[in-house]
C-alpha cells in the first residue's frame, strides 16, 4: 500500500465526526533537525486537501526536503489572521476537505496558531486528530535536570511591565517547574526580573537552539544566568530560539510558608476576638 493510500485509509479509520465532513489534523514538525520529523508527516502532507501553514514558504521547503510533492492548496495561518482563517477552514472541513495544520516548529496550538481552529472544529462536530512529534516544551523540560513530575507551561511572558511583575510574583510561590518561551533580546531582562521575584539563587536552565547544530544548554542560578545573558558582560548577546526552564519553589519551603500564613491568620483572628471582647465589656457611653 503506497503512502497516499495508507494515509487515506488512516483518515477513514479516524473519521467519526459530522457525516461527510473532513478531518482536521494537527501535525508536529521538527524544532531543529529535519530527520526528527514524525514518520507520518510526509504522508499527511502528501494527501491533505488543504494545508494551513504558519509560513507557507517554510512548509514548501520542508515538503521538498521530505521528498513530498504537494497537491494541497497551501494557505497562510498565522496569529494575525488566525481567527478569520479558522472560519474559512471550518467551512472547508464541512465541505469534506481534509485540513492539515503545521507551524514553523513543534506542535500547532502550543504558543502557535491552532487553538481557535480546533475549538471551532470541535464545536462544529468535526473530527480532530494529531500527528504527535517534537515540542520544545517537553524537550527542554526533559534535558533541564529539574523536576518533571509537575510543571506548567507559561508560553511567552507578558510584555507589559505590570502584568509581568504580577505573573512572576504569582509563579514565585509555585512548586511546579516552569517553562517559558522568550525572545533572545529580552532574555537578560526576563532572567533579572525572575531573579527579583523568585530569588536570585533559584535554579534555572536556558535551552538555546534545541536539537540544532548550535544547541546550547546553560544551567545555573537566575543570578548566574542573568550575568551570562547580559551583553554588557561580554557574551555578545544571546541568539537563536530560547526555551527557559525555572525550578519551582522548594516544596518544604512552600509548606513552611503555608504554615506561617496559617499562624499569622490565627494570630490575627485572636486579636480580632480580643478586641471584640474588650468592646463588649466596656461601659456604654
Could you explain how this protein is built, in words?
The protein has 285 residues and is an alpha/beta fold. The protein folds into 2 domains: 3-134, 3-Layer(aba) Sandwich (Cobalt-precorrin-4 Transmethylase, domain 1), CATH 3.40.1010; 137-251, Methyltransferase, Cobalt-precorrin-4 Transmethylase, Domain 2 (2-Layer Sandwich). It starts with a helix and ends with a helix. Helix content is 43%, strand content 18%. Helix 1 crosses helix 2 (41-47) and helix 4 packs parallel to helix 5. The mean pLDDT is 87. It has helices at 3-14, 41-47, 56-65, 82-94, 115-123, 136-144, 161-172, 187-198, 222-229, 251-281, and strands at 23-27, 50-53, 73-76, 99-102, 127-131, 151-155, 177-182, 203-208, 216-221, 242-246. It has a 5-stranded parallel sheet with strand order 3-2-4-1-5, with helices on both faces.
Features:
43% helix; alpha/beta; five-stranded parallel beta sheet; 285 residues; five-stranded mixed beta sheet; Cobalt-precorrin-4 Transmethylase, domain 1; 2 domains
